[in-house]
Amino acid sequence: MENGLLYEINDDGLYRVLLPSGLRPIVKPVLAAVIRRLVGSHNERKPEVPVTVVQIEGTKSGQEFPVRDDPKYLEALMAWQVSLGAAMLTRFLIDAIVVPEDDDWAWKLRTTMVTIPASGGERAYAFVEETYPTLVSQNIADVNDQLAFLKAVQQISIPSGAGIKKSAAAVGDDVEGDSTDGPEAADRPLQEQPGA
Predict the structure, then answer these.
(1) What is the pTM assigned to this prediction?
(2) Residue 145 belongs to what domain range?
(3) Domain total for the chain?
(4) pLDDT tens digit string along 10-46?
């Protein structure tokens, strides 16, 4: 994984997530606003770090200190992290996974006479269940695939500098050294239009 990125960009410009199990789902970015809204709604329920007040000897005042190792706080924090991760995983599975238009992937569903969802989140989730089962598994052994998937979709949706360079290289833009680099580009006059 180059520069810590958990995805690659195919020759056709599609993002392919590199999961530890060897599976390589094709994904698209999730809108940053969706991610912010999801995280923001969960942050409202994030448990607060408890504090203890230590009385300063010889005064009527005390100083507050956080108690980050409080067992009840740690339990609540873990439950909050699991809830946020589950919500993000579900949303990313529905919004990020690229689902083929044909139904070739659904042969097991057809064989067992299960209705294949025509569109939307149900179709995306059914595709994931059939094609990338480790992403929806409750098995603790599959958690690494789920964590890698979450991180990769975040990297694609809200790219770092390394991700931007990787994307630019995939489309043939050298990023550095183009005419928009640096403040001096803004001070140059616009090129005359041909025929003007």
Answers:
(1) 0.71
(2) 7-97+132-172
(3) 1
(4) 888 889 999 999 999 999 999 989 999 999 998 888 9
